[in-house]
Amino acid sequence: MKRLTTVLLTLLGLHCGTACSQQQFENADVQGFSLLVSQPDVVVLDVRTAEEYAEGHLAGAVNIDVKGTDFLSQALGQLDSTKTIAVYCRSGRRSAAAATLLAKEGFRLVNLVGGIMAWQAEGQPVTCDTHERDVFLTKSGKHVEFYALMHASIRIVYDGKEIYVDPVSQLGGRIVDYALLPKADYILVTHEHGDHFNPETIQRLQKEGTRLVTNRRCAEQLGMGDVMGNGDCLSLADDMTLEAVPAYNITEGHLQFHPKGRDNGFVLTLDGLRIYIAGDTEDIPEMEQLAPVAGQQEQVDIAFLPCNQPYTMTTSQLEHAAKMVQPKVLFPYHYGQTDVSVLPSQLEGQSIDVRIRHYE
User: Fold this and answer.
1) Known catalytic residue: 16?
2) How far apart are CA 195 and CA 189, in angstroms?
């Protein structure tokens, strides 16, 4: 196998540097690297900062900052050691350092000489990350990243784990290409409506070991998944817990959209960071139970609350819901054609950081 790999790399125009002479990693010029990354058993790794990555990167590249304190643990958790890792940075220096570290862990590495600067200088394509990103810190200082994908679809990255909430690839003319995103470690689905539940997208995101958590109706349709009902709690990992909370309509004439007891909202706790993802709901009285209680319950750090009648809430209802939950940060989502720009002024003086992202 090693000999075949060496032959393949030679045919692709790869050449060895000093590290290669020590059997650590191989170097490739732009032409060889371009041929290599088109192969199905190759993982592309961008070791620059998240900000650099967002400005432009190779399509499908996994981003792990080599300067990050948890680089090696993230790499070991996300990368497949059975595949060749094609690594690059801005000029080739950081990627060579990353390749040296990963080669010691048994990975097969190919480093792009000249980095993305050389790649672009020869007219090779890059893509930009158009999904808005917010970063928070957990109690022990770990990063949690949130990406606004579309409507009710959210991507969460925590400690090398990929978490997708209600992943849907297309609504009307809006499209999210999940083929360009990492596979899921966890998929959370609130209920079976088509703007939250799409079996094809779930299948595309799955890999060996992916854990799917949903309500009974979705699990029955898929024939798989961990079933949670309102009030159930689940441990996803040592520092990850999930609670299913009620999500339903209370306005007369709208009760049929989301009947009480059928659908879930979720409270996801990551290393002490409490995240409330409300799902499709109105300002139900159970939200008061999420408010901070001294000595008993921590404050919700981040809340995603929906805003589109007749299916979920009006802006006035969302204002009421936010006052009940009292999150530190509020993301209105699932807002359709509703004008949510009024919410910051409606919640002025509530010590709630309202952040409006483009989920539509």
Assistant:
1) no
2) 11
